[in-house]
Design goal:
Number of helices of chain B: 14
Helix content of chain B: 25-40%
Radius of gyration of chain B: 36 Å
Order of helices and strands of chain A: HHEEHEEHEEHHEHEHEEHEH
Largest sheet of chain A: 6 strands, mixed
Strand content of chain A: 15-25%
CATH architecture of the largest domain in chain B: 3-Layer(aba) Sandwich
Oligomer: heterodimer
Number of domains of chain B: 5
Structural class of chain A: alpha/beta
Number of helices of chain A: 10
CATH superfamily of the largest domain in chain A: von Willebrand factor, type A domain
CATH class of the largest domain in chain A: Alpha Beta
CATH topology of the largest domain in chain B: Rossmann fold
Number of domains of chain A: 2
Strand order of the largest sheet of chain A: 6-5-4-7-8-11
Radius of gyration of chain A: 20 Å
Largest sheet of chain B: 7 strands, mixed
């Protein structure tokens, strides 16, 4: 990996911490660790198991040239092997993710977390698929399982910019068919759009056997609401601007925001999702380290 | 409600401050692009009503707090009414306190003065006033001076002003004070009204009984009650110097000058062996006389002679031994001493039937010394004919006397008028001829045709004489001008027309017609006589009074117009000065103030003339005015107390009873009614209530502001 962009995205401290702890799949994703389980999934190894249709993003090295020659069809050879899981890193790139009271925006912070995780996951010979939802659009990029493809993935990640409204649940519902069954789905968002609709989609993903991890990316100012004097708040997703004295209702705001966050967290836990609060004022290593430590302990 | 310090109400404009701060807080804007908008809207919506209420409450509290503080500083006093339909009798009384501060109130027994006793009496009266009564305070002597100009319920203020009252060395007259008090009360809304006169028992202020009676009637018509109260005082002794004057207003170096001091016994008992001293104000006594005995009300004229060795301004004072009333124990006099005096005597043709020229007696009276000594005499007389009356001669003379000229040549007339206007003195005697005699147009009166030779002889009116020239003969010991015989004269006639020249009647015939008149002309002075200066028509030149009359007239003509010591404390001194001094600052050295002279004003242009005008003459004594570069005074004058105030004759109780009137009962009844309407503490100390309220509001604001900010 080279270039300033990659260095920016890959926080070395976070990377070390994540690598040392390892990323452990929780339940259904059987092949979370090579040699530890026999994966029912088909990977890319020595014993041939079956063919499957080529899909964009698949490594062309695994094309069955004979079938191509005979039948002019693009199929891949699949082998029974200790296989890896696929982690879908879905980033919310709506306008609200552009907010940042400090040097980094919420989207920037989410990118950092996603890049770190991608590096770790790919380093474990698992696959990463990057997706983003925002500005009324969504996209799920081909999965990557080789370190050589990592710069490309990071390049794509770095190119994401915040804009427009979210409609997270709507687009996640459209993406769901493309998400591999029994994969890991990490959703990086501030969930300020319509968290209830999002929570309605989660059971569907769970039904597909996916483990859903909700990474709630919030700016520290959104949690503490530290403003004084008179402030004109301008909406990032087209909301009308509001001029007010924040000090007058800061306590009420904090109370409402805490209630929302607690409720959201409890709802996630009811759906058997992990909820990770990513406060942009904290170092990404701390956030990831704490979560992975929790995850490790949970598994043990 | 009224205010003791209404000027503080201007501070109410500070009420704008909290409002401005409130608005400014809203204007200091920070722009934030914000994601969690929905929480913002919800939270704000939920708190908006409460916040708005809290903000308004705090704003109101702060404005109210500020207003209360300002009102407390303005010291309101509540007069209140018992109801909207309150009748006149239920209104609080309006009292005007008239406190005598004339010079006689300075009489002291060594411990306390009459004014102290009057103050104590006033204080007792104020204490007895019911709450709600409003009081104005006027100090009076011959004028009324408003110390508390509008009736106020703030009696503390009245007491403070009362403590500041000091005796003024001026005479006392009750009528002007009563008039001022009535004028004041009549401008106020209807209420029970009362005038309370406080003073000593001196009879002098009550001397104008007619005016007092008129004012009592006016008070009765206006339903104003009148009261007079005076503290008890033992019969007082008082010796005073009531007059001090020089024989002439301007002395001449080396020439003995006579001074006359009048001693008056204003006390209740005879005085014996009264020592009277004459002294230079800044030095030792120069002469002393003793008056053997003086009955109560008696006067004695004491004569001194003094010779000045140097020209310039000199000051003298006559003094009697110090007594209980100090203001009149001495009297000051300013004397201007000139090195010499040149008189131009212009004589007409010799009067038929006489051998001497018309100015013969005048020349002798002007320099009444033997011929051998005339050259050394301070008054130098030059006798000239009308043709010799040239501007050059006028330039060297101080006084010009025209004796027996039927008419003046136009050029001479003009030159002489200019001479007088520039400060010179002119004395005109008519000719003792049958023909017409034309008085110059700048003289106040015209000469009429001579009275017939067959007409009965006339004499002059006797004392008192108002003019300084004749004042010497107020004392019969100095002779009797009434003994003169005037066989013929030229009547002095008023000229027709509106622009008549104002003149003083120096001496009058026994029938009241003017015999000798004087008038100011420019900065000079002119005298006009009805008889010639020789013995053709009268025996005036042959009487002993002629020389002093000429000498005193000469003094007036040479510049001493004003009677010495005529200024009373508080009067304005004016004197024409060299036009070159116009606009220049002048300094004053005043009595009772040591150290170098201090700036007192600038030479002003008054009626086209450069004039010294000085009004800070409250202290009796000697004043010296200097210009800012010269150590020689521009003017020296004495301010003396009024002599009439020395008379401590007690007031007749019958006169004091003039001021008792029935409406006083209504005033007292109204005051009692007002007592029920307004509590005393509120009426007098309303500001304490406001200050306490402000304190409570400040605490409430503090607690609420703290509580509101914590809730947010």
């Amino acid at each position: 990996m080279s270039g300033p962009l990659h260095r920016e995205l890959l926080d070395p401290a976070a990377l070390n911490r994540a690598e040392s702890l390892g990323l452990l799949a929780r339940t259904i994703v059987e092949g979370y660790k090579v040699g530890e389980h026999r994966s029912p999934l088909k990977g890319f190894a020595i014993e041939f198991a079956q063919h499957r249709e080529y899909a964009p993003g698949d490594d062309v090295r695994h094309l069955d040239w004979k079938v191509l020659g005979r039948a002019d069809r693009l199929v891949l050879k699949q082998y029974e092997q200790d296989t890896n899981f696929v982690a879908h890193l879905l980033l919310d790139t709506s306008g609200s993710m552009a907010y940042g009271s400090g040097p980094v925006t919420k989207l920037g912070y989410a990118k950092l977390l996603a890049a770190t995780l991608a590096h770790v996951i790919v380093g474990q010979r698992d696959a990463v698929a990057l997706g983003h939802i925002g500005d009324g659009r969504h996209q799920l990029l081909p999965r990557t399982d080789t370190p050589q493809r990592l710069p490309w993935l990071l390049e794509m990640l770095a190119g994401l910019s915040p804009a427009g409204p979210t409609h997270l649940a709507e687009h996640l519902a459209r993406l769901a068919p493309a998400i591999r069954r029994r994969s890991l789905v990490l959703v990086f968002s501030d969930f300020l759009d319509d968290e209830k609709a999002f929570l309605d989609i989660v059971p569907r993903l769970r039904f597909q056997g996916c483990e859903v991890i909700v990474v709630h990316v919030l700016d520290h100012a959104e949690l503490t609401f530290p403003f004084q004097d008179t402030v004109r708040f301008e909406g990032l997703e087209g909301e009308p601007s509001l001029t007010t004295r924040p000090a007058d209702f800061a306590a009420e705001y904090r109370r409402a925001f805490d209630a929302y966050r607690s409720e959201f967290r409890r709802a996630c836990e009811r759906l058997d999702c992990h909820y990770v609060l990513a406060d942009t004022s904290q170092a990404p290593a701390e956030v990831l380290g704490a979560y992975l430590a929790f995850r490790n302990g949970h598994r043990a | 409600m009224s205010f003791v310090n209404p000027a503080f109400l201007l501070a109410l404009s500070a009420l704008a401050l909290p409002v401005i701060i409130h608005l400014l807080r809203r204007r200091r804007l920070q722009v934030v692009r914000w994601a969690a908008h929905r929480f913002l809207v919800e939270s704000q919506k939920r708190t908006r009503q409460r916040i708005r209420f809290e903000d308004l409450l705090l704003l109101l509290l702060r404005c109210l707090l500020l207003a209360l503080v300002v009102l407390a500083f303005a010291r309101p006093v509540f007069t209140g009414r018992s109801g909207a339909d309150a009748a006149l009798a239920t209104d609080p009384a309006q009292v005007v306190l008239l406190v005598d501060n004339s010079a006689s109130l300075g009489w002291t027994d060594g411990v306390s003065s009459r004014l102290d006793a009057v103050r104590a009496l006033a204080d007792a009266e104020l204490s007895e006033l019911p709450s709600g009564a409003t009081v104005a305070l006027l100090a009076w002597h011959d004028r009324a001076q408003a110390l508390v100009g509008r009736p106020t319920p703030d009696l503390a203020l009245v007491r403070r002003e009362l403590a500041r009252v000091r005796p003024v060395a001026r005479p006392s007259a009750l009528a002007p004070a009563l008039r001022a008090a009535l004028d004041l009360l009549e401008t106020l809304p209807p209420a029970p009204r009362r005038i309370l006169v406080l003073g000593d028992r001196q009879a002098l202020p009550w001397s104008d009984e007619t005016a007092i009676k008129e004012l009592v009637a006016r008070a009765a018509e206006a339903k104003v009650s009148l009261d007079f109260k005076a503290p008890e005082a033992p019969p007082a002794d008082n010796l005073a110097v009531t007059r001090l004057e020089a024989e002439t207003a301007e002395a001449v170096v080396g020439r003995p000058l006579r001074f006359f001091a009048e001693v008056f016994n204003g006390g209740a008992r005879p005085a014996e062996n009264i020592r009277v001293t004459l002294g230079l104000t800044d030095g030792a006594p120069v002469a002393e006389r003793t008056v053997a005995r003086l009955e109560p009300g008696g006067r004695a004229l004491v004569e001194f002679v003094h010779t000045f060795a140097a020209p310039g301004h000199h000051a003298l004072s006559a003094r009697v031994p110090a007594d209980a009333l100090a203001f009149d124990d001495s009297r000051a006099l300013a004397v201007r001493v000139s090195p010499g005096l040149r008189v131009l005597l212009v004589e007409g043709p010799t009067t038929p039937g006489t051998r001497a020229r018309p100015g013969f007696f005048l020349a002798e009276a002007l320099a009444p010394v033997p011929a051998a000594r005339k050259a050394d005499y301070p008054v130098q007389v030059e006798r000239v004919s009308p043709d010799e009356l040239t501007p050059a001669r006028l330039g060297s003379a101080r006084v010009v006397i025209l004796a027996g000229l039927p008419a003046l040549a136009p050029a001479a007339d003009e030159a002489l008028a200019a001479f007088a206007r520039a400060g010179g003195g002119v004395w005109v005697f008519p000719p003792a001829t049958e023909g017409p005699a034309a008085a110059p147009s700048w003289l106040p009166l015209d000469f009429g045709a001579p009275t017939p030779a067959s007409a009965p002889a006339l004499s002059l009116a006797g004392p008192p004489y108002a003019h300084a020239i004749a004042a010497l003969w107020d004392d019969p010991a100095n002779g009797d001008l009434g003994a003169l015989t005037i066989r013929r004269h030229r009547p002095l006639l008023v000229r027709p027309g509106d622009d008549a020249i104002a003149f003083d009647r120096v001496l009058r015939f026994s029938d009241g017609a003017p015999f000798l008149v004087g008038a100011s002309l420019g900065t000079g002075y002119v005298l006009q006589s009805a008889v010639p200066a020789d013995a053709a028509w009268s025996d005036l030149p042959l009487t002993p009074a002629f020389v002093p009359l000429v000498q005193r007239a000469l003094a007036s003509l040479q510049g001493g117009v004003a009677a010495p010591g005529a200024l009373l404390p508080g009067d304005v001194f004016t004197q024409a000065v060299d036009p070159a001094l116009l606009g220049r600052e002048f300094l004053v050295s005043a009595p009772g103030r040591s150290g170098p002279p201090v700036p007192a004003g600038r030479v002003e242009l008054v009626n086209g003339r450069a004039t010294l005008r000085f009004s800070a003459t409250s202290e009796p004594g000697l004043y010296r005015l200097f210009n800012d570069t010269d150590e020689t005074p521009l003017a020296v004058f004495a301010v003396n107390p009024d002599a009439s105030e020395s008379d401590l004759t007690e007031l007749d109780p019958a006169r004091a009873a003039l001021l008792s009137a029935a409406p006083g009962e209504a005033a007292r009844a109204g005051a009692v009614s007002a007592r029920r309407a307004i509590p005393t503490w509120l009426a007098r100390d309303g500001w304490i209530v406001l200050a306490s309220l402000a304190l409570v509001l400040a605490l409430a604001e503090l607690v609420l502001a703290q509580r509101f900010s914590r809730a947010r």
